[in-house]
Amino acid sequence: MRRELPVAFAAIAAGSLHSRMNQLELAASRALRRYETLHLLTVILATVVLVGSTELAVSDGTLAIVLTRALLVWFGLALLSGRFFGRWLSWILPVATIFPITYFGQDEQGRVQWWDWTGQPPSSVGCAAIAVVSMAVGIGAFYLTPWHLHALRRMRLRGEKPPVGPRPHVDEPADDVARVRIEESG
Q1: In the predicted model, what is the mean pLDDT of residues 17-45?
Q2: What band does 167 get if pLDDT is binned at 50, 70 and 90?
């Protein structure tokens, strides 16, 4: 049961992004998104440090690495769940993984399956890949707000490529089309 304990920490950490003004915040300004990003990074770092150092203090380093990796997998799933079901319900996908890990995590000979990120040793490349993909998908889900999705769809319909690099200043137009319109009107 101790191997599944980080699922609670991941769900609580991702759920900490929830507020009563959730729908308004999804359409909020860049300043609020920067604070949310800072909050998310702080929560991830604090949770990883707390779980890793606690496990290192009470057990060997092997279990600390395995549970930290599991925390990252579940944190990515919690962020994805927060996007699908709302931030308050960010626990759904991480908790849904407990059953397969518990009941199907070993084969007929009692060997741990390659995808059981709580049972594989720290050197497992497959579980490390699962952790990286989970975090990448979770962070992508965090950044793809409804406004970002709308802007990407609009650019795709116009045949434009998404902007790369720093965003324009507040006083500057947000895209080239707006810049052309301003030049034409001015």
Answers
A1: 75
A2: low
Q: Around Cβ 138, how many Cβ atoms within 10 Å?
A: 28
CB neighbour list of residue 41: distance below 8 Å, 6 or more residues apart: none
Question: What residue type is 154 in one-letter code?
Answer: R
The residue written with tokens 């909020």 in the block is 28
Q: What are the backbone dihedrals phi and psi of residue 112, each rounded to the nearest 5 degrees, phi first?
A: -70, 135
H helices of 105-175, in order, are 125-143, 146-158
How far from the centroid of its chain's Cα atoms is residue 147's Cα? Answer: 18
Structure confidence by residue, pLDDT tens digits, 132-149? 999 999 999 988 877 777
Instruction: Give tens-digit pLDDT for 113-135.
Output: 888 888 888 999 999 999 999 99
Those residues whose C-beta lies under 8 Å from the C-beta of residue 141, and which sit 6 or more positions away, are: 79, 80, 82, 83, 84
Residue 151: C-alpha distances to residues 17, 37, 51 (Å): 23, 20, 38
pLDDT at position 166 is 60
Whole-model pTM above 0.70? Answer: yes
Q: What are phi and psi of 106, to 5 degrees?
A: -125, 145
Give dist(CA 152, CA 141) in Å, integer.
Answer: 14
DSSP secondary structure letter of residue 29: -
44 contacts: CB under 8 Å, gap ≥ 6? 13, 75
Contact 102, 5 (CB under 8 A): no
